[in-house]
Design a protein that fits this description.
This protein is of the alpha+beta class. It has eight helices and 22 strands. Strands 9, 10, 11, 12, 13 and 14 form a six-stranded antiparallel sheet that branches. The radius of gyration is 22 Å and the shape is globular.
């Protein structure tokens, strides 16, 4: 490895193993459009366990942050959520947020019919929580706050406050601020955007052991795991295989069986960030058996066939010209990738907070 990659690996180890590196903070003031400060607004970092509230002067601070990218969000009932991407490199950040009063859309036809609403609730649960074992284990505590509406070919859903979700498989309570959910009744394709906070559920010793095991299983082979392994230049050693897809826009598309290395698709920008750039979509899959057995008898073509048959592969395509990631596996711009396949099917029920670090290797 050349020096920059070595530096990246050293930094990742220090991020995972030492809290001494977590010395930065994000602070600021929250105001409304007229300039008045907003006390008691909820301030959180999307996809994390980091949350606080503004004081009587509208001030807030979130501390113990490592260098990286963060989606800062402010929520206050009756106002539109305010969001800002914050990048920390070598110093703390000061960010002031302005919140605007929420307005009802006159174009929305809100669904109140019980039969239609129940149908859309079931559709929403499958598309939003996921159809996996973890997704099916989730329970929405307050589904009545979901507002469904019909707009031509689409069914949409929004919330004005946090959806409260209990993930009984992973042991988390998730508070999700649903910005937009859209289901196309013609293509049957759904999409959603929003921000969330994770909290640990309270459980018995036996329950916590089960959650620990399930969290590890959800983590290994996930997109978060893959991006972190790219950052540390350990993707191949940790069991990830990735190949270029040839003729991706045509029916004759095929996978180039020459396995790529991290250096083919990514390079460190500095000690805090990695930049990904590739011209052809990637086919990525995870085989942790490689980590267990030094005698890996499968050749590349057999391994790819195995992944296809098991439907464990994912397709990663750059939507923007480049993508920037940090040690946590967080992406600076969420629009960077188009993800299909295994990762594309993972929903809220399979998500972990970015603070999560497995405390032992997969067995």
């Amino acid at each position: 490895m050349y020096p920059k990659v070595v530096l990246a690996v050293i930094f990742l180890l220090s991020f995972f193993c030492s809290e001494a590196q977590e010395i930065y903070s994000i602070s600021g003031i929250v105001k409304d459009a007229s300039g008045e400060t907003l006390p008691a607004a909820t301030i959180f970092l999307d996809g994390s366990e980091k949350k606080t509230y503004t004081n009587g002067k509208g001030e807030f601070i979130l501390g113990k942050l490592s260098p990286g990218t963060y989606e800062l969000t402010a929520h206050f009932v009756g106002y539109k959520a305010s969001r800002k991407n914050v990048i920390i490199k070598d110093k703390s950040a000061t960010v002031n947020l302005t919140m605007e009063v929420a307005e009802n859309s006159l174009k929305e036809v809100v669904i109140t019919n019980s039969k239609s609403r129940n149908k859309y609730i079931q559709l929403f649960l499958k598309s939003f929580l996921g159809d996996t074992e973890n997704g099916k284990s989730c329970y929405i505590v307050n589904p009545k706050i979901i507002r469904f509406s019909e707009q031509t070919m689409y069914v949409t859903a929004k919330t004005r406050d946090f959806l409260e979700i209990e993930n009984r498989n992973l042991g988390y309570r998730i508070k999700y601020l649903l910005r937009d959910f859209k289901f196309n009744r013609s293509t049957l394709i759904s999409s959603y955007t929003g921000e969330c906070i994770f909290e640990d559920l309270k459980g018995t010793a036996d329950e916590m052991n089960i959650w620990k095991k399930n969290r590890r299983e959800a983590y290994y082979g996930s997109l978060m795991h893959y991006l972190r392994s790219l950052y540390a230049n350990t993707a191949a050693r940790e069991g990830f295989y990735f190949y270029a897809i040839k003729n991706a826009k045509q029916e004759t598309q095929q996978i180039d069986t020459r396995q790529l290395s991290v250096q083919n698709i990514a390079k460190p920008i500095d000690s805090n960030f990695l930049e990904m750039e590739f011209s052809e979509p990637l086919y990525v899959f995870y085989d942790f058996q490689k980590d267990q057995s030094p005698a890996d008898t499968l050749n590349d073509e057999e391994r790819i066939t195995k992944a296809f048959n098991a439907k464990t592969g994912s397709i990663m395509e750059l939507y923007l010209k480049k993508a920037t990631i940090d040690a946590k596996g967080s992406i600076v711009d969420y629009r960077s990738f188009l993800i299909k396949g295994y990762w594309g099917e993972r929903r809220i029920g399979d998500q972990l907070p970015f603070e999560y670090v497995p405390d032992e290797k997969k067995l």
